[in-house]
Amino acid sequence: MSKGLQESMDNTVGVKIKEEIEVFEEPLQILENKTIVKEDIEMNMCKQNMKNFEIKVKDEIEMYEEPIDITIESYCVNPQVTHTEKAAYRCFYCQIKCIHCGKTFSNKNAIKRHLRIHTGEKPYQCIHCEKTFSRNGYLKKHLRRHTGEKSYQCTHCDKAFSNNSDLKCHLRTHTGEKPFHCSLCDKAFSYKNSLKHHLMIHIGEKSYQCTHCEKSFTRNGILKLHLRTHTGEKPFHCSLCDKAFSQKKSLKSHLTTHTGEKKISMHTL
């Protein structure tokens, strides 16, 4: 573990311990748990998982590294309270309230980030494309797509990813986990977008319109396949002859003519 990341983790754990001491007044037990928790993490994680964990902690720390300065008085839930003693890390008396939705936050940085949801402000712009982001941490994650940096390694195969959320989605291909359930039938899906596209079948919505004809489709991928009938694009090339095809399944079917493989019809069984 790098020295800088170790110090950041220690500081983060230290703040949490300080908060729990102030609330529960059990300093000895909590201080002892600090060592136990860190030892348990290192003992129960393989080397690659530990590396992924360190990168995730670093990302979380970077997510909140943005200088913010706003006037707090107008947001305080209970500004008339006089504090009996100074709170070093968090004030449990004067939480900050959002004037738009009523949610409360413990510090001005948190309310500033939250307010961007209502205002739509995205001050962080990518230097490679036109995308903008509400947080500096989101921009840093996005930049990895341009640089090609892939720090998150799958422990089951050789694939690597630019952010932890993509790795989590990929891991479902190994575990078979399908957490997204359709409320209209018994199907479940590994990805949220897959469920979204499936629901369009139930409601009959066809949001993807062809620009060359009047046909519309439930999924963008199906529209792309259809567009090839207009453009004549054939991206799937046979490596054994000069033929090319617009769909992958057509290429697979064609390859059987070279290998001699024949599909058996259900009627011949």
TrEMBL record:
Cellular-component GO terms for this entry: nucleus
InterPro entries (alphabetical): Znf_C2H2_sf (IPR036236), Znf_C2H2_type (IPR013087)
Coiled coil: none
Domain of life of the native organism: Eukaryota
One Pfam match: zf-C2H2_4
Localization, UniProt: Nucleus
Domain spans labelled C2H2-type: 96-123, 124-151, 152-179, 180-207, 208-235, 236-263
SMART domains per the UniProt record, alphabetical: ZnF_C2H2
GO molecular function, one term: RNA polymerase II cis-regulatory region sequence-specific DNA binding
PROSITE patterns named in the record: ZINC_FINGER_C2H2_1, ZINC_FINGER_C2H2_2
Keywords, ordered alphabetically: Metal-binding, Nucleus, Repeat, Zinc, Zinc-finger
Gene Ontology terms describing biological process: negative regulation of cell differentiation
Protein family (similarity comment): Belongs to the krueppel C2H2-type zinc-finger protein family.
Protein name: C2H2-type domain-containing protein
